[in-house]
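Structure in, sequence out. Go:
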């Protein structure tokens, strides 16, 4: 079938596309930034259309038989209105284009009780599709367990970093988690499902969140966790705690936790009869996710999606002529290491390796960013060795990669302006190689100019140290090989 996948740069969309292709379907991807799909292994096997679910979707829907709708506006304050408008626009466009089916993944929720804003919005989007002239398969899932998912990362870091766990009342609510591979199997199977209804999807285990943490600890080989009940810890306060302890920012943690306030257990299992197959149990799903994480074999991560409010414009070709003030910090260092070895160090920057200078300064900047609602420094990286355009790298976003020559990063931390960091590798004139580094900052208003004035004195230590230590690291490896 001819399928349109919205949200192809996201956590589930990026995994669904290759599985649809493997089943013989033709795939078109609707994305706001096509360049983010440039480096994925299946990029040449799909058609990529630039656009947004709030735009005119006539061209995106042309000749499409099935639409997989995997987008939502979780971060924005008015996300419910935005999601409703986007769903209605998609449903109208699908009807006009003669689409045969819409497949949507919503949230599992109880009936007859007030829902959290997040779950209420997911339910409303599903209802929009079910009311439309186009038949819709609305899958409803609770917590998805898979390497790189926000739910799994929150569970993982809370359990691993807290040998004594402070537990609010909601951790005793029952949940029916599901492995990401089973969610994807259902999404692929729903492509050919003749129905117009909701389907609850879940794994074989029904657990409390506390039981999920304790069983995670057992599977991960951690010492037994101690539990300290704190019934007054509200979802809002819990989200601050998650923001402090895990890489998941409060903007994502808050709606996730608010959803856990409800018991989310499947009321029916009809999908198992229509799409038979054995679902993965919770312990096995955790084991698989941990293996993928430890082997650096994570297909997609929650942080792959763009961060709302963060600058999205690319670095101007000539920032000095882009209008307004531009501040730059440029540094260069020659090294005896080969360009190939120097590039290995450059592309491996961030994550567990850090930023090669003054770790405390980077850590403090990350903490300050988290305190003001930013993403902080703990998003890490998907792969320890290779970077792709569009991926998150700590509090940066990879804007450009020219393998062996250039790595350009766009800042997503909270700053009064727009910032980029370029790392370049060139062959040396008399052998060896040259490392060039350029930081660019375009201030916004007086606050932006004051910000640059405050941080400028630290650049010699931080950026200067980065240049020196990257070159030293490349040479150290070179000398080690010689010995």
């Amino acid at each position: 079938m001819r399928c349109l996948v919205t949200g192809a740069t996201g956590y589930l969309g990026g995994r669904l596309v290759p599985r649809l292709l493997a089943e013989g379907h033709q795939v078109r991807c609707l994305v706001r930034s096509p360049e983010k799909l440039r480096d994925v292994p299946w990029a040449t096997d799909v058609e990529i259309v630039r656009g947004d679910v709030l735009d005119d979707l006539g061209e995106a829907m042309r000749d499409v038989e099935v639409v997989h709708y995997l987008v939502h506006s979780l971060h924005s304050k008015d996300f419910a209105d935005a999601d409703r408008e986007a769903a209605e626009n998609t449903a109208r466009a699908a009807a006009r284009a003669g689409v045969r089916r819409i497949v949507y993944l919503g949230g599992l929720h109880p009936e007859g009780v007030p829902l959290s804003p997040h779950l209420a919005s997911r339910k409303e989007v599903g209802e929009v599709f079910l009311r439309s002239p186009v038949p819709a398969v609305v899958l409803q899932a609770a917590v998805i367990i898979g390497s790189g998912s926000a739910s799994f990362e929150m569970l993982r870091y809370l359990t691993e970093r807290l040998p004594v766990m402070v537990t609010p009342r909601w951790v005793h609510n029952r949940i029916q988690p599901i492995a990401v591979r089973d969610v994807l199997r259902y999404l692929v199977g729903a492509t050919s499902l003749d129905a117009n209804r909701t389907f609850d999807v879940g794994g074989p285990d029904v657990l409390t969140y506390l039981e999920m943490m304790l069983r995670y600890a057992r599977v991960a080989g951690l010492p037994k966790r101690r539990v300290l009940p704190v019934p007054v810890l509200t979802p809002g306060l819990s989200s601050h705690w998650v923001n402090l302890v895990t890489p998941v920012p409060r903007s994502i943690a808050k709606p996730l936790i608010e959803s856990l306030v409800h018991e989310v257990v499947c009321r029916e299992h009809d999908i198992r009869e229509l799409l038979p197959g054995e679902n993965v149990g919770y312990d096995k799903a955790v084991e698989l996710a941990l293996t993928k994480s430890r082997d650096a074999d994570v297909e997609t991560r929650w942080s792959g999606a763009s961060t709302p409010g963060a600058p999205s414009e690319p670095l101007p070709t000539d920032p000095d002529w882009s209008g307004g003030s531009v501040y730059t910090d440029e540094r260069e260092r020659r090294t005896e290491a080969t360009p190939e070895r120097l590039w290995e160090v450059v592309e491996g920057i961030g994550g567990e390796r850090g930023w090669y200078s003054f770790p405390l300064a980077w850590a403090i900047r990350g903490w300050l960013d988290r305190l003001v609602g930013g993403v902080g420094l703990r998003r890490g990286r998907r792969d320890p060795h290779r970077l792709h355009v569009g991926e998150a790298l700590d509090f940066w976003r990879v804007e450009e990669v020219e393998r062996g020559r250039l790595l350009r990063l766009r800042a997503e931390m909270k700053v009064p302006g727009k910032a980029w960091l370029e790392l370049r590798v060139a062959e040396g004139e008399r052998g060896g190689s040259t490392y060039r580094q350029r930081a660019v900052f375009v201030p916004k208003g007086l606050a932006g100019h004051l910000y640059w004035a405050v941080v400028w004195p630290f650049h010699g230590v931080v950026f200067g140290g980065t240049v020196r230590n990257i070159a030293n690291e490349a040479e150290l490896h070179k000398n080690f090989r010689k010995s």
